Amino acid sequence: MTTPQATDPAPVRLHGVRKVHGTGEHAVTALDTVTLDFPRGTLTAVMGPSGSGKSTLLHCAAGLDLPTAGRVELAGHDLGALDERRRTELRRDRVGFVFQAFNLVESLTAAQNVELPARFARRRLPAAQVSAALAAVGLADRADHRPSRLSGGQQQRVALARALAARPAVLFADEPTGALDTAAGRHVLRLLRTLVDDHGQTTVMVTHDPAAAAVADTVVLLKDGRLADRITLDPGRPAANAATVAARTARLETA
Predict the structure, then answer these.
(1) Could you tell me which residues are beta bridge partners of residue 220?
(2) Residue 18 maps to which CATH number?
């Protein structure tokens, strides 16, 4: 693994990002002038009360939506300067996504599910790259298994392998453990941490769970669309981290 240097440009940068849904008296400000970097080779957890802007932040940072004002830079590109085709290509080539729902195709094997985004893009993903992605999540021996033969945790790991197969500049995970039991969720979180530590994979994870956020390097707390707090963690102390995050989020919600 190559350790990121302090001078490395952040793969994702938000500058004064504002997002408003609706107009006039029905306008709702989902993000209110947020400036934030997600440094290379780190895991950042994004937390906050319901309606705080977590999902909107992820959507704008990943290029799934454009801000009303401000600028988002993704993998060195100003998203506002790109047309929809170029933004789509950038997401396809430089971004990985993992969601709470596994979104696997039941009729396809694990390996075929990993290949699927490339096939949609009319490209061929080398077999070695597919195998490497499955091996990275501990499923090298499940390549030929369909989702019905995999546990929920294993299915989420296939979804993670699918996101990693294109070797993205940044991985966005939206509640990746939300549909898993405790043991499977811990396994997925350990994998995310390992990908950061061993492979320098920049990762941004939206979560409501302090225990999930405890594996992060930094926790960003949102409230009413604003950046309300930032917590720097020691990933080697998950229990203490979880307690710290729980206390700070509780304080934020009652403020």
Answers:
(1) 46, 230
(2) 3.40.50.300
